[in-house]
């Protein structure tokens, strides 16, 4: 037996035979183009076929996050600039599949150069290219194998169309050679409750049917385990799932210290019955990929659907988190074009500088929906960098009749100035995904820098600790809504630092609840102290384990 190492991004253990994702179609040698119009018709048929298939998958997706990404792919496929560019390539002598591949290669290079959210769409473009080429060639579209038995899925990376329809009873675990902790593969694996490891060197060289065991918490992948060992791993995992399924009630430590366990959602259909409330309501799903902004009444209805489902419970609404790195067609006139680094550009709350009516309309809609329901509605702004921005946002919220206001801590400047920010807002919510990216100057989609995005990085833990201390001094709550909150072990660190709420994909809540229930607050503090004193993520994990002992 030998061990491969990657980055664990979705907790849990699983074992089984490896199966690789079906490879994309290869382009044949370029043929001579005898009928340009027929080639153009082939492009349009392929676009229609792929758009219909992606729409079908989006409609069938059980998670809003998956559906949103798939619909974004549909818009990419049906964008007239794609077909126009393909037509031009055909006129220049390329056949339909070669024209599509060339055009999408140009788009891919542009997305990579843009960085930020657009760079995260590169795998979506690759998937779109493979599907369009396959449709042009009359071949089956690439995708997840169906061997008739459970298996561990291995791939270079996974496209949203692949992950959206995964069945956790068949796909026991995921291992990819690329990707990162905040990639779609990682986020959707956590949402579906599938153990996953990314950036696993050597995984692509394994042959199909080799039996492996993976740990989605530590990132370890054991190669060559016996069938008996695999059965034992899966039996233990099944017992844990059964225990989690029976887990109920609010989050608290073994000695009764409360830690609210909240859900990250994109809409009402993401809710499950066993949540204390919502710690992150991503409202941008209402806005993305639209040529016109949602009207106030449409927003009221969407917000009220969530609020009505949670009477008396907390719902933290994040205002529009979009901008140059999440392009919105209706904002193009008010935002700068061609930003050299969109991740550092006009995004989040900064959009209100250029388009103040978008924020004003949203706050008005939230207030109307809140007044018509019994939910405890809190509102927070993304991408706040200074106390002045926080104060201005809080004033705007209160002018709309929204009394509980906060901000997200996603940039080091805000973390360092947390005490000043808390003078004007009622709470903080730490977005560890972006805070990692900006702290370590490491693009979230640069797989070769993925280790810098590990939430166990001591520098990140130190920033979180500073925010928690500021909250304790001010007597105001500080939560975490980044993906790190879903790691049961890291949840103990966060609790020990003084974080008061943890927000995550609903499927992750039971495991975190059980981890907290097994430790006292003092043990969590010891674990946090040990992790904070470490010099590396690996040492932080190990020290935290010793602290728990």
Name the descriptors.
549 residues; alpha/beta; Enzyme I, Chain A, domain 2; TIM Barrel; eight-stranded parallel β-barrel; 21 helices
Hey, roughly how much beta strand do the residues contain? 5-15%
**Strand line-up in the sheet with most strands:** 1-8-7-3-4-5-6-2
Question: How many angstroms separate the termini?
Answer: 29 Å
Helix content: 40-55%
Radius of gyration: 24 Å
For the secondary structure, the number of strands is 16
CATH classification class of the largest domain: Alpha Beta
Instruction: Output mean pLDDT.
Output: 89
Fourth-tier CATH superfamily name of the largest domain: Phosphoenolpyruvate-binding domains
Largest sheet: 8 strands, mixed
Low-confidence stretches: none
User: Architecture of the largest domain, according to CATH?
Assistant: Alpha-Beta Barrel
CATH topology title of the largest domain: TIM Barrel
Compute the number of helices.
21
Judging from the principal axes of the Cα atoms, what is the shape?
globular
Structure classification = alpha/beta
Secondary-structure map with pairings?
Blueprint: E1 2-5, E2 7-10, E3 13-20, H1 36-60, H2 64-78, H3 80-91, H4 96-114, H5 116-120, H6 122-137, E4 151-155, H7 160-164, E5 171-176, H8 184-192, E6 196-198, E7 211-215, E8 220-223, H9 227-246, E9 260-265, E10 277-282, H10 296-308, E11 314-318, H11 351-354, H12 356-371, E12 376-381, H13 387-399, E13 405-409, H14 412-416, H15 418-421, E14 427-430, H16 432-439, H17 458-474, E15 478-480, H18 488-497, E16 501-504, H19 509-517, H20 521-532, H21 537-548
Parallel strand pairs: 3-4, 4-5, 5-6, 9-10, 9-16, 10-11, 11-12, 12-13, 13-14, 14-15, 15-16
Antiparallel strand pairs: 1-8, 2-6, 3-7, 7-8
Helix pairs in contact: 1-2, 1-3, 1-6, 3-4, 4-6, 9-19, 10-12, 18-19, 18-20, 20-21
């Amino acid at each position: 037996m030998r061990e491969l190492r990657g980055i664990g991004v979705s907790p849990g253990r699983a074992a089984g035979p490896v199966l690789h994702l079906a490879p994309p179609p290869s382009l044949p040698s370029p043929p001579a183009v005898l009928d340009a119009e027929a080639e153009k018709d082939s492009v349009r048929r392929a676009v229609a076929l792929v758009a219909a298939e992606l729409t079908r998958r989006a409609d069938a997706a059980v998670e809003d996050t998956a559906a949103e990404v798939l619909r974004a792919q549909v818009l990419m496929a049906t964008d007239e600039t794609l077909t126009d560019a393909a037509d031009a390539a055909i006129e220049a002598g390329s056949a339909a599949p070669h024209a599509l591949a060339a055009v999408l290669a140009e788009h891919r290079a542009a997305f990579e150069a843009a960085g930020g959210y657009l760079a995260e769409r590169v795998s979506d473009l690759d998937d779109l290219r493979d599907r369009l080429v396959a449709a042009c060639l009359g071949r089956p579209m690439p995708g997840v194998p169906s061997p008739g038995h459970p298996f561990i899925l291995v791939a270079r990376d996974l496209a949203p169309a692949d992950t959206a329809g995964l069945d956790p009873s068949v796909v026991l675990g995921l291992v990819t050679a690329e990707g990162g902790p905040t990639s779609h593969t990682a986020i959707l694996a956590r949402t579906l409750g599938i153990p996953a490891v990314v950036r696993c060197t050597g995984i692509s060289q394994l042959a199909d049917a080799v039996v492996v065991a993976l740990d989605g918490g530590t990132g370890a992948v054991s190669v060559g385990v016996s069938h008996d060992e695999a059965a034992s791993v899966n039996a233990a995992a099944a017992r844990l799932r059964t225990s989690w399924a029976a887990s109920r009630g609010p989050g608290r430590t073994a000695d009764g210290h409360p830690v609210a366990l909240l859900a990250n959602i994109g809409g009402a259909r993401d809710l499950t019955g066993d949540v204390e409330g919502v710690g992150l309501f991503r409202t941008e799903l209402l806005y993305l990929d639209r040529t016109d902004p949602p009207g106030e009444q449409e927003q009221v209805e969407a917000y009220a659907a969530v609020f009505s489902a949670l009477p008396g419970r907390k719902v933290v609404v994040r205002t529009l988190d979009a901008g140059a790195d999440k392009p919105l067609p209706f904002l193009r006139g008010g935002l700068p074009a061609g930003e050299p680094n969109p991740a550092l550009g006009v995004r989040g709350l900064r959009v209100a500088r250029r388009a103040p009516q978008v924020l004003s309309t949203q706050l008005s809609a939230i207030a109307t929906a809140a007044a018509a329901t019994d939910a405890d509605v809190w509102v927070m702004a993304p991408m706040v960098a200074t106390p002045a921005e926080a104060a201005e946002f809080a004033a705007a919220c209160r002018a709309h009749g929204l009394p509980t206001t906060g901000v997200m801590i996603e940039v080091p400047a805000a973390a360092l100035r947390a005490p000043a920010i808390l003078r004007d807002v009622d709470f903080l919510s730490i977005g560890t995904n972006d805070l990692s990216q900006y702290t370590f100057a490491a693009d979230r989609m640069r797989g070769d820098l993925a280790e810098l995005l590990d939430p166990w990085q001591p520098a990140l833990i130190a920033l979180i600790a500073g925010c928690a201390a500021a909250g304790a001094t001010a007597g105001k709550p500080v939560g975490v809504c980044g993906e790190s909150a879903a790691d049961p072990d890291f949840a103990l660190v966060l609790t020990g630092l003084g974080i008061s709420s943890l927000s995550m994909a609903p499927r992750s809540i039971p495991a975190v609840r059980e981890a907290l229930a097994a430790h006292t607050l003092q043990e969590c503090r010891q674990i946090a102290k040990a992790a904070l004193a470490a010099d590396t993520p690996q040492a932080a994990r190990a020290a935290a384990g010793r602290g728990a002992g």
